[in-house]
Amino acid sequence: MQSRKNHINVRQVEIFRATMKFGTVTAAAAALGSSQPTITRELSRLEEHIGFRLFERRLQRLVPTARALKLFEEVQASFIGLDRINGFIDRLREASEEILTVSSLPAFALTILPEAVKRLNADHPDLTLQISTVDPRNQSSISGFNFDIGLIEDVYTERDADARILWTFKLVAVLPPQHPLATRDFLEPADFEGINFISLGPRDPYRLSVERIFDMAGTQRRLFLSSQSAGGVCELVLKGLGASIVNPSQRSATSSKAWS
């Protein structure tokens, strides 16, 4: 077998791939915007460079060898990433030039953002908006390098973005409609002594902050249910299964009171 003389270049790989994909030199030349003699010449050079034949010439047709078929599998795998990039470029070309990326907690994405997006769209109809959600347990994953705007509840201490406080709010107790505490304007930690309490997930930062408040007050609640989302907590409360404390943006049809 002839030893390899040079590394093959990207153009040669493209020509080989097109020839394998379309089956003929003529079709490959048309797909690449080239000529049949050029494709034929480059294929011969490619075979010379790699030191083995890729095609058998039979009745004016190119029949790929076993090695060519194996090489084509490798080439196809290599081109998957490039095809994905080209597809993304096409989508960017079709979209408006103005793209705003927003990363938000699920609670805000379901409550606050829809109205904000409606107003933004009215003022900037050509703006393309891309919204993604971030796990409440990993709010630090929002980075100024990845998104234009991030909406979280914690204090953002990283230096890769300009952090601003948009609003502050009191925690809200969500209670079944006929719950005795629903008639109260304000609730204290002691008011939850011994009642069925529905919590967020064990690692949720909201739950951990609420737990600290009750621990400091020495309040003992009956913790028998938890849900990963505040919306799920509110639905469980609505079914009369217990009370909870959530972000005010997640209040559902249950009775709710400010909690001090």
Automatic annotation (TrEMBL):
Keywords: DNA-binding, Transcription, Transcription regulation. Residues 8-65 form the HTH lysR-type domain. SUPFAM superfamilies: Periplasmic binding protein-like II, Winged helix' DNA-binding domain. Signal peptide: none annotated. GO terms for biological process: lysine biosynthetic process via diaminopimelate; positive regulation of gene expression. GO terms for molecular function: DNA-binding transcription factor activity; sequence-specific DNA binding. InterPro entries: LysR_HTH_N, LysR_subst-bd, WH-like_DNA-bd_sf, WH_DNA-bd_sf. Pfam families: HTH_1, LysR_substrate. It comes from the Bacteria. Belongs to the LysR transcriptional regulatory family. This is LysR family transcriptional regulator. It comes from Brucella tritici.
